[in-house]
Amino acid sequence: MYNEVLALIKVGVTGALGRMGQEVVKAVINDNETALVCAIDKLETGKNVFESVNIESDILKSIEVNKPDVIVDFTEPSIVFENAKLYIKNKVKPVIGTTGLSDEQIDELKKLSLEYNTGCLIAPNFATGAVLMMMFSKMAAKYFNNAEIIELHHNQKKDAPSGTAIKTAKMMAEANSDFKKGNIKDTELIQGARGAESYGNINIHSVRMPGFVASQEVIFGANGQVLTIKHDTSNRECFMPGVILAIKHVYRENDFVFGLENIL
User: Fold this and answer.
1) What is the C-alpha to C-alpha distance for residues 196 and 74, in angstroms, rounded to an integer?
2) CATH 3.30.300.350 corresponds to the domain 128-233
3) Where along the chain do its domains lie?
4) Mean pLDDT (whole number) for 148-154
5) pTM of the model
6) Of 153, 170, 205, 231, which is the active-site residue?
7) Architecture of domain 2-122+237-262
8) Is 153 marked active-site?
């Protein structure tokens, strides 16, 4: 049994008691190529999550004792950047699902990944359908000069707009630099009514409401036609195949990746 575990990818989960973290724990346990070696969370230290794996609160100590190959981080925007630097500097390959990283922080993590020769994968969304939505939106961006994004999430999500919406806008802007061509200058009677302006002058509108998990619409407009590309998530299990794919990729390829679309 000991040799069998050694042959598996040793995985840690940070934010293990969160909604996504709990699903990741189950997915890692149930996959025949991965082994859960540590579960980290600031709450309920000592709580048993699987056989001999208990909740720990000290990331560095857990890394030193359990020696994970990969750590999956689903924590919160305020701490994810420092967490990610800690993983890389200790030669543990992070899979980052926590959103809220700025472009500058992502660039710094890329530099650290190269400096320490330690792979890192950051994905704003792990659902295959959501990634395809982003890719299709980039394709459509070549043919439309007007577009806006509406993203809808549960009311416990701390950051807005979502990482998926930001990544979508960035991908679209690579194909077209201005999505407000022909628009008149509007006046907001209530500040923020037109959403937040992002890459390519794309307005992003964020909705936070109980009942949602994660949904996004990308709306393209042109004279006489409207194209809507939409993805809905009804549970968190749909993200797990993408998380497992990311774990296996970063373990084997040891590279820096931003966006799951780059490994599909």
Assistant:
1) 25
2) no
3) 2-122+237-262, 128-233
4) 97
5) 0.83
6) 153
7) 3-Layer(aba) Sandwich (3.40)
8) yes
